[in-house]
Amino acid sequence: MHPETLLRLLRLALRALEVFLSRRAPQPRPPTRADKVVERVAPLAEKVLERVHPESSTARRRSRAFPLARAALLGAIVAGGTAYIVARQQRRVRDRYRRLAARLPEELLDVLAAPGGGGRLELVYGGEGLKDPATGRLYPVIDGIPDFIASPLTEAEYLAGIPALESGDGLKLGELLAPVKSLALGDDRTGSAALAGAVASMARVDWALSVPCGMGDYEIEMAHANPQARILCIDHRWDALLETRRKAREAGVANLYFARSDAALLPVQDKAVESVWAAHGFHAYAEPERALTQIARTARPGAFVAGVALMLGGPRYYDALLRFNPRLPGLRDTQTFFSLLSASGLGNLRVFREGAFVRFVAVRE
Question: Is 18 within the bounds of a domain?
Fold first, then answer.
């Protein structure tokens, strides 16, 4: 029998005996032998029980307090960890937007053009602007990064006020959740990084294009895979370009170049790049076919084009997650996307599905 059960039965029997004797002798009486037994046996039994079985009264009180202490400790660890992550991310954002007083690398003039294509641009105003000789339009250079998103300016408009770099020092929850979302959708980042490195290697000593630019992970992998290639990173988001530049500084990478523009109207000369990496946005474009057409325009014949995109047509679990996401206007199924790649002038197509993501490889015909 369990020791605690035995003690309870003993207490119950002695209590019953005490009640029975008290009814038989209602008048005050001296302590009986039973009373003496209760006084002696009960404390001794409890001491024995505390040694034999830890779930005694004292141990039970401690066991009740332990879960509360454990929950409080766990809560403190979670709160402290969250505060650390938030503080670190805020420091990264502040460092990301720290101005470097950088100048536009002149080798960018070999590949840049007005949005949609055109001839070589000219560097004007001491490196603070780019001019399209064909139209006379000016594009500002902000902290060493040409900005093609703002409307092209006339000379009078440009001299009236050069746009300033957008500032940002707040924490963006989307950045913290992006890795979790990718993992939930089945993204294989190791395989994608290996493919990005292969894209850079195919550029040899020429230009490679990363559009739209991510937050630097794949781009840094490309720079390490082929230090002799010149990799142009294009995105419409300042935070993506500046974070990639920040990571490049930390990694000691010097062959990444940046321009702010939209993938649907690339500021790159025709047939100017040897390879293209596109991993962050076809599903986010309202008209992904325009971005694919622009990519094909900038790639030389035989150029290697590869990337990653969210696509329908996978397991039902992933398709259900994708259909309820309103921020994916360019979401297509695999067959439709395959047709878009072919129509844009890309051949030798191969696709590989990983959850909701599809990695694709093609060659510019």
Answer: yes
